[in-house]
Amino acid sequence: MGSTTSVAGQRQHAHHFKNGREEFEACKQGMWIFLVTEVLFFSGLFLAYAILRVFYPEMVAAAHHELDWKMGGLNTVVLLISSWTMARAVSAAQRGQAQKVVSFLLATFICAGIFMCVKYMEYSHKIHEGLLPGSLFSFKDLLSVDKVGLFFSVYFVMTGIHGLHVLIGMGLILWIMKRASRNEFGPNYFTPVEMLGLYWHFVDLVWIYLFPLLYLVS
Amino acid sequence: MATSTVQHGDNYINHSQGIMSWLKTLDHKRIGIMYLFSILFFFLVGGIFALLVRLELLAPGMQFMSQDKYNQAFTYHGAIMVFMVIIPLIPAAIGNFVLPMMVGAKDVAFPRWNLASYYVYMTGALVAASTLFMNGVDTGWTFYTPYSIRTNTSAAWVLMGAFIMGFSSILTGLNFIVTVHKLRAPGLSWDRLPLFVWALYATSIIQILATPVLAITLFLLILERTLGIGIFDPKLGGDPVLFQHFFWFYSHPAVYIMVLPAMGVISEVIPVFSRKPIFGYKAIAAATFGIALVSFIVWGHHMFVSGQSAFANYVFSLLTMFVAIPTGVKVFSWLGTLYKGSLRFDAPMLYVYGFLIVFTIGGLTGMFLATVSLDVHLTDTYFVVAHFHYVMVGGTLLGFMAGLHYWFPKFTGKMYKESTATWAALIINIGFNVTFFPQFILGALGMPRRYADYLPQFETLNRLSTVGSWFILLGFLVVAYNLWSALKSGVKAGNNPWGALTLEWQTPSPPPHENFTNDPVVTEGPYEYVGEKALMGVNGAV
Predict the structure, then answer these.
(1) How far apart are CA A57 and CA A45, in angstroms?
(2) How far apart, in Å, do the first and last CA atoms of chain B sit?
(3) Phi (first) and psi of residue B467, to 5 degrees
(4) How close, in Å, is residue A120 to chain B by CA atoms?
(5) Which of residues 133-152 of A touch B (CB under 8 A)?
(6) Position A147 pLDDT exceeds 90
(7) Is the pLDDT of residue B141 over 80?
(8) Do B514 and A146 touch (CB under 8 A)?
(9) Are A172 and A108 contacting, i.e. CB atoms less than 8 angstroms apart?
(10) Burial of B32 per CB tally in 10 Å (0-12, 13-18, 19+)
């Protein structure tokens, strides 16, 4: 957020701010407000999930066995590690250690990549088996369970939108890595890294809720 | 509040040249003007659909449309007017231009996101409008399931358009909140903020909290149509009433996204044209937030006949009554400001007088509909149609017209012809009441909404209503002519033709590129119309 004008490596704050501090504060507030909208966006899905649990508790209990908790658990660990590397990247940016920023962002990116690979394996397995949303559901062992497709609707929509956020985050990480390698960040200007960090922790946090709700219900 | 008004000819219009300098601008004033023209274009489109609907209802039986076309016409009228016109109208067009100036800033906090919001809006609007050339859409603007899942029309594209436009609304709200927090001029404490800024701030909070819920709802409905995920589809075990809950959780607060900015305009215009400090500044600001708060806990009053529990009906009915309290605080504060003021009858103020009468009728009939026993009788009748047009058109649109005439000299540096503007205001106000008042009676008599035909006993009132719609058209044509000719050949307006005290009037018209020639410093509240300042502008110029 905010425009960049690099003059010989020295970044000036955008023209309508009094100083860099004011700009940083504005960006941070804007980012938090954006995260509020994200929470509300996901809240609709969590509500739909809650209603599903209340309407069809046996169906949810039966259907969740088709999710592999080991894969979900692995992804949880991977994302937790990525949150740590992201936090290190932010603190390195605040100290102006460009090389460290790049390394930690790269580690974060790799974790995100592992997450997406595991997700891909889970998805392709389910699509292959016919464990699909709503009307498309065709997995024969569970066809006798009433409304079972709904569980996979919620599963695919929630993890799909979350996965989309991970992908967007990976794109942003690459962009910030490139800027860090050009030595753009330091004690006076690290706003983009900090904002990326906030976004990334949010994406992790959503998964921390999704994992038990979808994989560990009983 | 004095700032230098040195004229050196540079303003936001001539600051840079060429169409690209507009399309790529980061200047909030230009973005506001781009929004204004785009929204007014869609207002014309939505208005044409309204006129077609009224024309079809001129007489019983079918006149010139098929019943399917009629369903599409009222759907487009509603969807265009709600999502493309009234929601962005005041915040994105007038607010974008005026809010940063009112707080003494050079721009909004995030100018690039501001420009992005405009393109997001245009993308969404064009996606939705493209269905006009496909199979249309006939669900009504509320997209109720399960019909919206089953219809063969291009509903998914309209849903996608509304989904996209939601992000533009969020971006505008986010920008305004941060701008108000971080970019206020020195001395502009919270208790000196103009009430229009307070109104936009509260509106932004609603946009931030409610719009994402609409986004996920529309997204799920799109998946419902394309993949059959079943969350809202009873056939697959989903719950269609859940859709209504989701939809109204956004769309009731959205009513206040539409009307709070208009109330903000009213709060600006009244003190200027009464030459008096506003009555109850803090009460109006607090009431704005009261309305925003209550807006989130009343959505169930749209669903009294949906099959939700009787207990929920009682609770939502009671909570809805609370809306009347902050709204009443505002109306009485405005009346208190008018009382013993040196009232003037310039065009902006004529719309305000119209607003006060019409909006009060709209608000009070809202209390009728909040009463469960009465609402069961009135649900889905023309009474509801009349009620929300009294609030949306009588409230938001008249508020917008007041604002447009009030800030037009600031936007353009030109002054429109007062006598023409007066006539237009009268025609619009009268036309509005002739169109919509009969609909209260029709609804009470039991005429259902959204039907292409009606029983012969409703003919007289329907005829009256249709004739009224022609007067509204005439009024807007006169406004368009008046403002257009002012733009082409109007007299110079001067920097502060109304003698107003808020910051945007303390700088040249049209304003320079960065709004102020010197950074403004604020030393008192925005409505201190006492002593000499109470007399300023009385003779038309400073």
Answers:
(1) 17
(2) 16
(3) -60, -40
(4) 20
(5) 133-136, 146-147, 149-150
(6) no
(7) yes
(8) no
(9) no
(10) buried
Cα–Cα distance measured from residue A1 to residue A19, given in angstroms and rounded to the nearest whole number: 15
Q: Is A70 exposed, middle or buried (0-12, 13-18, 19+ CB in 10 A)?
A: exposed
Structural domain that includes position B38: 28-535
In this structure, is residue A6 part of a structural domain?
Answer: no
Q: What is the CATH number of the domain that holds B33?
A: 1.20.210.10
Q: Does B49 reside within a domain?
A: yes
A88-110 pLDDT per residue, tens: 999 999 999 999 999 999 999 99
**Would strands B491-492 and B414-415 be described as parallel, antiparallel, or unpaired?**
antiparallel
What is the pLDDT, as a whole number, of residue B6?
45
Cβ of B246 within 8 Å of Cβ of A33? The answer is no
How distant is the Cα of A71 from the closest Cα of chain B, in angstroms? 24
Q: Is residue B16 part of a domain?
A: no
Q: Let me know if residue A144 belongs to a domain.
A: yes
CB contacts, 8 Å: A33 with chain B: 174, 177-178, 208
**Does residue B152 belong to any structural domain of this protein?**
yes
Nearest chain B alpha carbon to A38: B212
Q: Show the tokens assigned to B521.
A: 């410093």
ipTM above 0.95, yes or no: no
Scanning the structure block, which residue is given the tokens 């930690």?
A104
Say if B328 is an interface residue toward chain A (CB within 8 Å): no
**pLDDT digit string, tens, across residues B219-274:** 999 999 999 999 999 988 899 999 999 999 999 999 999 999 999 999 999 999 99
User: B211: which chain A residues are within 8 Å (Cβ-Cβ)?
Assistant: 37
Lowest mean pLDDT among A175-179, B15-19, B300-304: B15-19
Which residue among A41, A51, A135 places its CB closest to the CB of B215?
A: A41
Instruction: Check which CATH number belongs to the domain holding A137 and give it.
Output: 1.20.120.80
Query: Is residue A165 one of the residues assigned to a domain?
Result: yes
For chain B, the average pLDDT equals 94
Which residues is A5 bridged to in the sheet?
Answer: A12
Whether B394 and B358 have beta carbons less than 8 Å apart is answered as yes
- Express each pLDDT in B342-358 by its tens digit: 999 999 999 999 999 99
User: Does residue A106 sit within a domain?
Assistant: yes
Q: Is residue B1 part of a domain?
A: no
Task: Look at the block and give the residue holding tokens 């390394």.
Answer: A103
Q: Is there a cis peptide before residue B146, judged by omega within 30 degrees of 0?
A: yes
Contact B118, B31 (CB under 8 A): yes
Q: Does A96 touch chain B (CB under 8 A)?
A: no
